[in-house]
TrEMBL record, chains A, B:
Species, as recorded: Cellulomonas terrae
Protein name per the record: Sugar kinase
TM region(s), chain numbering: none
One example GO MF annotation: kinase activity
Family: Belongs to the ROK (NagC/XylR) family.
Amino acid sequence: MSGSQPGLGAAHASSRSAILDLIRAAGTISRVELTRATGLTAATISTVVRRLIDDGLVLEVGRAESTGGKPRMLLQLDPSARYAVGVHLDHAGITYVIANLGGAIVARWRRPGAGSDDPATVVARIAAEIRTTITRVGVDPARILGLGVVSPGPISASTGMTLTPPVMQRWAEFPLGAALEDAVGLSVLLDNDATAAAIGEYWSGGIATGSAFAALYMGTGIGAGIIVDGTVYRGSSSNAGEVGHICVDLDGPVCWCGNIGCVEVLAGPAAVVAAARDAGLELPGRNVAENFGALARAASRGEELPLQLLERSSRYLGVAAQTLANVLDLELVILTGPAFALAGSLYLPEIERRLGQSFFARGSHPVRVTISSNAPEAAAVGAAALVLQSELAPRQAGLRMPLELPLEVTAG
Amino acid sequence: MSGSQPGLGAAHASSRSAILDLIRAAGTISRVELTRATGLTAATISTVVRRLIDDGLVLEVGRAESTGGKPRMLLQLDPSARYAVGVHLDHAGITYVIANLGGAIVARWRRPGAGSDDPATVVARIAAEIRTTITRVGVDPARILGLGVVSPGPISASTGMTLTPPVMQRWAEFPLGAALEDAVGLSVLLDNDATAAAIGEYWSGGIATGSAFAALYMGTGIGAGIIVDGTVYRGSSSNAGEVGHICVDLDGPVCWCGNIGCVEVLAGPAAVVAAARDAGLELPGRNVAENFGALARAASRGEELPLQLLERSSRYLGVAAQTLANVLDLELVILTGPAFALAGSLYLPEIERRLGQSFFARGSHPVRVTISSNAPEAAAVGAAALVLQSELAPRQAGLRMPLELPLEVTAG
DNA sequence: CTAACTTTGTTCACTTGCCTAAGAATGCCA
DNA sequence: TGGCATTCTTAGGCAAGTGAACAAAGTTAG
């Protein structure tokens, strides 16, 4: 809420974005269906779609079967019309992705993390990586919309981002966005991993435009990206969805955040690994992720102790997911991120069970739970989707609308 | 998500609503400030404000001090331009309110609750109450915008409302809205008490348009009304903010909702009263509310056991508030509803403490906590505000916008 | 006191997004 | 082959918002 806001008036081109988004969500769709979905007239749809086709974003692909008259022309996004680069920055590793308009991954690679290197050095490395791969893959640079960069933890709008306290402290005040824009020559968007993962799912998962869902992301920390009606829910300081630090046990251990009984300190990967160590298990991995993976494999094989530990963790995550669903009235929760990539199938049943018991699951609608199809690089894919979305839905952040209408009862 | 949606295109008159809402939030404001806040041009503001003045909704009240040129004309809502009736329907009692555009209460009264009476009888009683009071107070019926009706628990869009399972079961399938519209002759809006209380605070509390806040409502149950950017957050089935049934103790008692360790069963008024009884305390009241009030007074006097019980309850509610703030990234939590009206000051310190420790309280922004100034009839006032708001911001529910832009980094 | 300047607010012609209405295109079926 | 249904396009009009010029009402400098 800083300074003068773009506000209303900038709300134009919104139907173009809405239509593009519907085409994305549907995969292939006809003009008639677009009129029904948007509420716009056939005439408007016609002209807007014409412009989209002229701009090369949309293709006419064949015709549907006739329903008694002229058959509908089917529309689709042209996947190779635009591209975006996504980068997931973590101290464990940097994941790169180049994605096209269809949400498909054109290139994907991984390099060692930032570690203790100087931020400027890392930025130069990232820029070189991206440039060489773009030429190698043969993507027309003019069609690349931008670069999305994603990292764990809360972000600060001013400086760029504040990473989680324990690690990468020196990045806190580094102007990452501006530096990368200079180095790579692309416009840069910054966001946190959970939000990006949610957009990634929204983008490539064919999720309907009107739904409310969350991506529960477990990686270094535990967070949630929340998308409502096709819009990211950000809250008052862009830090919504901080699931890792909700309290699920008033008598629990102290978390590094200062509170007691946080989900993260009770059930996060680091906590699970630490508990295994305390119980006397030998863990050979060099970091938490590796050890967590080893525990997940051991649990899958049926080993007693790992199984117990992961079951305990999944109970807490079930509570967190249920809390999220209760507060936000979600209809879908997607498990994603590196930790769920390793152990998602162990967590799924318990989380599913709890959400099935949820207050409204019986009354109004069920809460579905799924595991992301690309959980390991969900954040990087989401970073790219972030950029794609910002092109398809170029909407000012400050645009605000007045209060929504409550349930209206129309008199007989 | 049913059928064809109103969709885009119906987005007109939105700037009129936005401007009206800004005038409401500011109390008094000039045209120049409106241009800055909305992003619209001075020309647009001029014409829209002219229409608002012609319609009698806005008044020009004096001029501001000159800043070197022509002094600004100050604008204000005309409080007596419009009125709305609010009704809070609970089995304990029915609270009525007539409020004006300024959010001020013109009339307020209370009658015995629905009890076990026939719904049709109750509707007739309500209609008679409202009609006689309108004439008694002398409000011009033509200036009454409508009737807001509010009750605890989740609502079903189809039939009207579903009240909480334990009581008033026979109301579940009664078409309350339609019946009231016929009987009273006003258009009727239905919603739940927590949401209404939140709008009430938003309306009369002078809360800024851009903020994210929640009204934590403790009455029969525990719920939260969530308002983001001046819009009610409703979720996918209008049941968002169900705080009462989030789990805060995995080893806790079973709740009537089927889950374990819900806030409501651990810390709700009924739970506090039951615990007091179990501990051997004599409680003379006829219902939970009276006994809870007695306990609150005893605790204020410093009696040991009541104090302990309420402190225990406030710890759980602190967790709930913190969870809400973490998930939604709130900047303000308002305690309201009958229970907080009785014991708010006993709850405030602990809730404040917890939110002060919250993850982002230190990093980005504090989370403020206040007690509603009119907690006892917050729901009824909110019911009226609901109607006022629906006039000031006549926005279609189905209007949906594509994804919001993430943090953009502008190069050099 | 007058002239120049600043800031506020209004008027008017123009653009743009969307709508209504009419018509063109393209298939099915008698 | 000629209706008929359905899809899509084109043409004219309305309304919201903009930009630019202008009018109004104050302050400040001479």
